[in-house]
Amino acid sequence: MSARYFVIAMDEESASGVRRTGMAPDYPHPVHAEVAGDPAPCRVCLDRFEPGAERRLLFTHDPFRDTVDLPLPGPVFIHEKRCARYDADAGFPPALRRARLTFHAYGPDRALVARERTEPSGDIEAAVDRLLGEPGVEYVHVRSTSAGCFPCRLDPVPAAA
What domain range is 66 assigned to? Predict the structure, then answer.
């Protein structure tokens, strides 16, 4: 493993449900299909769309749906056709390194413990290590600094017993 965290992309079950039903998970909102107009990342494979060439689905997703019973939904994109889920052990996604990012470190009950921003040339590993080293941090959300959207979550690797 290349880092002390796992990269948690959108689960394949949710993505398959969106593709199959044309509806957002947990919300009665229809999915919008389009040709990518920008290189935003797919929330499953965490690679960037090729503008003008790849089709994608836009829908409402709550990145806190598995952690706390306080919804905070927002828009996300996934490939219209199935794509392989990003390998949680693969380290930080290369396609996301090219963006300005904001990392939100959360503790119990979605309490914001700390936040850091990085530039495309910034040291992402150092920022994530600092955040995961903060007392009480349970996970880190990665967000686009410019758009505010949520690509993935970072979960610390459990300490060896």
Answer: 10-79
User: 82 with 10: CB under 8 angstroms?
Assistant: no
Between CA 76 and CA 152 the distance in angstroms is: 10
User: β-strands 152-156, 32-35: how paired?
Assistant: unpaired
Q: Are 123 and 108 a contacting pair, CB within 8 Å?
A: no
Residues with Cβ within 8 Å of 95's Cβ and at least 6 positions away in sequence, in order, are 41, 46, 47, 48
pTM over cut 0.90: no
Residue 29 counted as domain residue:
yes
Structural tokens at position 23: 């509806």
Cα separations in angstroms, 21 against 30, 32, 60, 72, 82: 9, 12, 14, 22, 14
142 with 3: CB under 8 angstroms?
A: no
Let me know how long the chain is. Answer: 161
Per-residue pLDDT tens digits for 129-148: 999 999 999 999 999 998 88
Per the structure block, which two tokens stand in for 157? 């690797």
End-of-domain residue from the set 51, 79, 107: 79
Each residue's pLDDT tens digit, 59-89: 999 888 776 666 678 889 999 999 999 999 9
